[in-house]
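Session log. Operator J.P. requested a structure for one protein chain; no other inputs attached. Running the standard single-chain path with token output.
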Amino acid sequence: MLPIPAFGAARAAAAAGVRTPGLSLRLQQPLQQQQPLQQPLLQQQQQQLAAAALSCALPRASALCFSTAAASSSSSSSSSSSLSSSISSSSKFSRHSVEGRYAHALFAASSAAGNVEQVQQELQLLLQLLQQSRDFAAFAAAAGLAADTKQAVLQQLAAAAKLSKTSSNFLFAAAANKRLQNLKNIIAAFLELYRHHKRQLQCTITSAKTPGDP
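Structure written below.
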């Protein structure tokens, strides 16, 4: 009778209905040891990222919200009730893209609430946070961050920046749907939609002289 190879012993024993507890224990042990070690490390990294995002974003948000409030009090709060505005055909954001859909939904919500101007200013604030804080930008781009962790950070951020309910709900929905990594492009699409609504043209002026020089 030919000898059974060592790696086939467990299979042969299983087919014969014989248990091999020593061998099966050795096979299962590595799998049981790997899983518990990674989860605490992942949670610790998530907490560190969230804390870093808050420590950098909250002071900036608190400072910027005063300038936003001052600008909103001096500007007109009138907005059109029409919701038929759309991103122009020359835009790089399609209406059916993620950015386009979120921008249109937010514009419709802010138009219905009558606070388009306020939401536009608050999105400018968020854009500044993304540009000025690497930690907040990394927080927004972290797709693997737990949803409840992101919600907790955004709730504190919304309170510190005194964001409107419209902007706050937009952020919470984006986080719940794992679209915060698209936040910068969604804001850009909304601002383009806002300029189209206000019939404003964005342009860049290049001059060889400093403005004001004779």
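Operator note: The mean pLDDT is 69.
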